[in-house]
Structure formats: structure tokens, C-alpha cells
Amino acid sequence: MKILIGHFGHEANTFSSRILDFDEFKDYSDWLHGDVLKEIFLSTPTYLGGMLEVGNKYGVDLFASISAEAPAPLLSRECAESCLAEILEDIRAVKGGLDGICYMLHGAGCAEGIDDLESYILQSIRQETGEKMPICVPLDLHGNITPEMAELATLFGIKQYPHIDCKEAGMLAMKTCIESIEQGMSPQTTCIRLPLLLPCSAGYTFAEPFTSIQPYLDEYKNTHDLIDVTFFHGFPYCDRAITGASVVVTAWSDPAEHAKELADYIWQRHQDFQADILSAAEALDRAEESRAPGYIVINELSDNAGGGAPGDGTHLLRELLARDLPKSIFGYIYDKVAVNEIYKHKVGDRISFYLGGNTEPLHGAPLYIKDAKIINLSDGDHISTSPIQAGVPHSIGRSARVRTGNVEIIVGSKLTQTYDDRPFLITGADIEQYRFICLKSAHHSRAYFDDRAGEIIACDTPGILSGNLSAFKYKYVPRPIYPLDERAELLP
Ligand SMILES: [Zn+2]
């Protein structure tokens, strides 16, 4: 039995003013190709880790395609076509032909002239493989899922944000792919879209309303013998006609009625998904007042590179510098130019330089950092310890830790979000020795910090990932849609 495995994820933030070409996407997405995937992702908590575990267990001949994921601005048309060409080439390269495909696609991919990138890719794959080949696709919780995707492939979703259950989705997709090949038929998937934009900041699944919704969905799935039931939050920062939350059900028998019933259930709670919006000043006020033991994490979620934000915003750092809080550290801010400037000097030198604010004016103007001491220089490479991707190589690029007044700042040259303590550790900082830990991430950082920080305070500064959706000028999302329109209704 021959199955092609891969992971191609793009989450488009169309409020970014940039468009990504193929080389930039490869750089952003940690692009890997071929058999190396089988070594890197084996025994990791990732989609590919799950596919490998089940595929190996059942003695499947696994053919590795691409691993690439980048939350990012819109892709150029050329970039999307180049990615697709690589996937199609991998399908054609399997001698004797494939029996099935198990490929992670994100669900919120978007390129110039291609609003539904996943359906575009799946259509092209279908042209290559025909209608019958099992194609099993696990998707990210933030996918804007469409009925077209559900027509083209068997779909699965992760349930948790932070995404600590990617491996389970990869395992289920591979197991179902093997069963589909053995039985000569594929399960059906139904997708029902909800008139709901759910901001990422309101999507933390280890609190209400999700801690009562998810057990209900799990029990429903088991009672009705369904393969998968997922409430996709969608990605509201992709302004397209297909954008929004959805309910997706996969089963061996027709799942349409179940999907409808569950969509009604979720819709009854649509007003429960509310984002807290704290300014930088309010978040730091709360941090200073906190009596929690240990350290306080202040996460600037609206500048999370994991949702296509620039990662070089200056709002929170500006407020932190103004307060000059003792035992404070910011880890990290993305600025290649600043890193190059710092690297003209050595550890111990003092330097003045401009930092951040290079990409999106909404995220704040550049800061002038005066007479900072260079404490540490690092190549930024590390192995992740986050439960989301433990064991996977990761990097913030060539980086530096500097101190100005009481505030320490880590500057990196590769854009990603802070998942764990590694960006601090690789620049020689032990976070246990600080009181205020500022970072850029929405909820993924919580997979690591929930059990370790005295308190976590989310900070929603102006930016292209803000939970304040009324601040965005939507042109293409279907209206009415909640919360932009109170009168939005789920149509029967
Ligand atoms: Zn996601």
C-alpha cells in the first residue's frame, strides 16, 4: 500500500499590505522536502508525526512530499502555482502509482486570484489521481472550510487552540486513509458554514464556552458513530467570501443531518465567543498589580506572526520602555536590519539603533533604542519544547539580547512567534529570574506557559490580528455576519 504524506499550510492575513513570493514563503515556512520528513517528524506531536506513527504501524509504503507552514500575507499567484507544481510532481514521481494521499492542508490559504487555495490544490490533485483515490486531509482549527473542499477530499480537524492535538488529527487521517483503501470507498464529509467571525483571541479552548462545547461534540460523535466532528473557528483576518466558522462532520454514512444539528447547536452560542481587548497600558497596569508568584507573561496577541502579523510592532515594547520595569524582558521582536546593526559590534559594546515598526504602520512607529548594552549574540537555532511541536528544530534566526535601562530586549531575524522559553534561553536568559515576560503570540505560547507562569495577561494593541473586528474594513466577507452584524442568522 503506497500513501503520499505531506503538510502544506498557508493562513492568509489579507489585511497585511504585503504579498509573499515563492522564495519568501519557503523561508517563512521552514520548507522541507522528501525523506528528511520521516526523520524529523517521527515521534513529534505534529500532523506528520501522527501520519508516520500510524503508517509505520500498518506497514504502509510512505512517500514524503513537502512540509511547509506559514501564517503570512497573501501568496503571489506564482508562489501558489510553484507550491502546487511541487506537490503534483511528488504524486507523479511514485513509481507504480499511489493508493492514497494523506496531506495536511491548513484551510485558510489564499493567493492572488485564488480565494480558496485548498480547493484549488485538491482540484488539481483530483485531475491527477481521478475521483476514486482516497485523499484524507487534516486541517487547522483556523481554516475557513468550504463545501467544495468537502466534495474533493475526506476532511478532519484539530479541536484545541493552542494546537496540541495535531498528532491525533494526523493519526485519524492516516487510519481513515488506510481503511478507505482497504474497503475501496471513502467516507463522506459535510461542511456547514456559520455566519460567524471568531477572533483568534476569543478562541482559547481551555476555557468556556469551549470546555462545555467540546465534550458535547465528542459525545455526539461517539453516540452516532461518526469518524470526526470539528467546530472550525475560521480565520477572520482573511477577508474573502469563504471566510467564517464552520462545522465539519465526516462519517461512513451520510453526515449531512448530523452536521446540520451540530451547526444549530454551535450557533445557539454564537454570542459567547467574545474577545477581551486590553491596551498595552492596561495590560502592564494589571501585571504590575498582580500578586501572582513567579513571573507574569504579557502576550501581545495582535502582533502574533503566527497569524500573519509583522512581529515587529512596537506598541507593547514602547509602553514597557516608558515604565522601565525592573526584571523585565521582551522576547522577541523581529527586525533583520537591527540585528545586522547589532552584529557590527560585540558583546559588551553599547549601541544606539532603531528597532521595529518597519512593516505595518498600524503596529506602531520604529523605536529609537539609545545606548543599549549588548549582552548576548546567538544563531537563534533551537529544538522546540512547546507541547505543540516538541522535538522539532526551530529558529528565530541570528539574534541578540540587549539591555536599556531595566528592560532587556531580544531581537531576532527570522519571523515566527514565541512558543516557549527557547528564544530566551538561546540568548542566555533564564526566564525564572525575571518578573515581567513580554512576548508576541496569541494562545500557542500558553501550551508552554499555562503551567509555568504566575499569570498570563493578553494584550491587544492596534494591529492586523486584533480581536477588535469592528476596526477592520471588510470588503468581501458575506454579510450579515456576527459580530459585525447583530442580525446575522444561520439559514436553515
Ligand atoms: Zn491555527
Helix percent reads 25-40%
Shape verdict: globular
How many separate domains? 2
Structural class: alpha/beta
**Mean pLDDT, all residues:** 97
Q: Which regions contain 5 or more consecutive residues with pLDDT less than 50?
A: none
CA radius of gyration: 22 Å
Structure notes:
- With 492 residues, the chain is an alpha/beta fold.
- It has 2 domains: 2-272, Rossmann fold (3-Layer(aba) Sandwich); 280-466, no CATH class.
- It has helices spanning 22-28, 36-40, 47-57, 77-93, 117-129, 147-152, 166-183, 210-223, 256-267, 280-289, 315-323, 336-342, 422-425, 444-449, and strands at residues 2-12, 19-20, 32-33, 61-72, 74-75, 100-105, 135-139, 154-157, 188-193, 228-232, 246-251, 296-300, 328-334, 350-355, 367-378, 381-383, 393-395, 399-404, 407-412, 436-439, 455-459.
- An 8-stranded mixed sheet has the order 14-15-18-19-13-20-12-21. The protein has a 6-stranded mixed sheet with strand order 3-4-1-6-7-8, with helices on both faces. A 3-stranded antiparallel sheet has the order 9-11-10.
- Strand 6, helix 5 (117-129) and strand 7 form a beta-alpha-beta unit.
- The protein is globular.
- The model has no long low-confidence stretch (mean pLDDT 97).
Keywords:
single chain, 492 residues, alpha/beta, Rossmann fold, 2 domains, eight-stranded mixed β-sheet, six-stranded mixed β-sheet, 14 helices, 21 strands, 28% helix, 24% strand, globular, binds zinc ion
Summarize the structure in short.
By secondary structure, the chain is of the alpha/beta class. The chain has helices at residues 22-28, 36-40, 47-57, 77-93, 117-129, 147-152, 166-183, 210-223, 256-267, 280-289, 315-323, 336-342, 422-425, 444-449; strands at residues 2-12, 19-20, 32-33, 61-72, 74-75, 100-105, 135-139, 154-157, 188-193, 228-232, 246-251, 296-300, 328-334, 350-355, 367-378, 381-383, 393-395, 399-404, 407-412, 436-439, 455-459. The chain contains 14 helices and 21 strands.
